[in-house]
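Anyone able to model this chain together with pyridoxal-5'-phosphate?
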Amino acid sequence: MKFPSLQDREIENSMSQTDLKKLSERDKEHLWHPLTQHQTAAPRLGINKAKGALIWDEDGNEYIDGIASWYTAMYGHCNPYITDAITKQMKTLDFVMFSGFTHRPAIELSERLIEILPDNQEKLFFNDNGSTAIEAAIKMALQYHHNRNDKKETLIAFENGFHGDTFGAMSASGLSSYNGPFEDFLLKVERIPVPQEDNLDEILERLRVIIENNSCAAFIFEPLVQGAAGMKFHSAKGLDTLIQKCQENGVLTIADEIMTGFGKTGKNFASDYLVNKPDIICLSKALTAGMFPLSITSCTLQVYNAFLSDNTSKGFFHAHTYSAHPLGCAAALAGVELLNSPEILERRVAIEKAHKLFASKLKGHQKIAEIRTMGVILAIDLKIQTDRYGSLRDELYDYFMSQGVNLRPLGNTIYTLPPYVVTDEQLQKIYDSMEAVLELF
Ligand SMILES: *Cc1c(COP(=O)(O)O)cnc(C)c1O
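re: yes, here you go
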């Protein structure tokens, strides 16, 4: 296999001469953007090109994609190994529905994923994005109990978790300051704090009381790292104990690996750090190497078997039109091949090492509350007060962009989760911009 050049910078500006108005101007006419208060927000930046760890705006300015476009493009943008796989697939079989039919890309992907997923995972259910993977997982858990004539309606979730923006996922999410209008319509959820070194007994007691006083269907969690909460880490040992307690009490466990999956934490999956493997695992984002919206809800045979019956209605009657899209599967298959290729493994190790070195350099800095790293994730909690989408947060974001680095602070946390193909130079530029930010306040 020919590995794509990491330094392919021969990017021509693709803006056509007939574009008289800037993209950022034309955008305002008809587009409504996610997570945006359009009354006050600055105009959106027009992006023309992306390659490797770099993106270019319509004026030709270059930015390092320090968060791999929301943790998706881990093998670099427009990676020819991925684009070739998709191109080849789209000329053979573009799309066909996945109910009644099956196809080679989905089958081969399932075979490859089962090899690298935790051993207890046996069956893969396809969806089309992260939130719908969670939605399917929650419905699976509820129906699992229902099919066994056991009505259970409560979910257990971590405080400050994030699982997506559809109703089930939003219910499970604890970052609810923007969920106000919907609160009356959410599922029933009991929350526990994440396990740290010193609070496990307390959480176990709380979990015991929750399980005793509710009929709990499932415990859903982001394993080891809560991404949207600000790349907050928790104890693998503690999580292991919580999973064990749930499993002993017939509560299904759902690991949301949408952010952590595919090498971000150092291992293929964060669940690889656990002894007690979750019953259900949700995958998306880097699953398709940043190329295609697709997701998977995987589960054990025990979960799957609860849906087998002569009675049709005990089946899982849940579908998305574009389930198991062949192009997404082809991208995912190529991505899984790259994940543990020598070239990518070398970079994963190098980034982890560089992060640790940078963290030890900044440790104890007077403006830093905490600096932490795991795998290719590096996060710094700054000693400042700012809202999740507050103005100081916006200033930090603007500063990073002015330095040619795309980093999106989460409240007072600045972090990087770069694509594996980021070069040493680019990584240094990310670190330099983070250090420079410390001088700003
Ligand atoms: C991004 C994310 C989701 C939601 O995925 P979407 O594709 O944006 O719906 C769910 N859980 C976690 C941990 C995520 O990072």
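Residues 405 and 430 are 6 Å apart (CA to CA).
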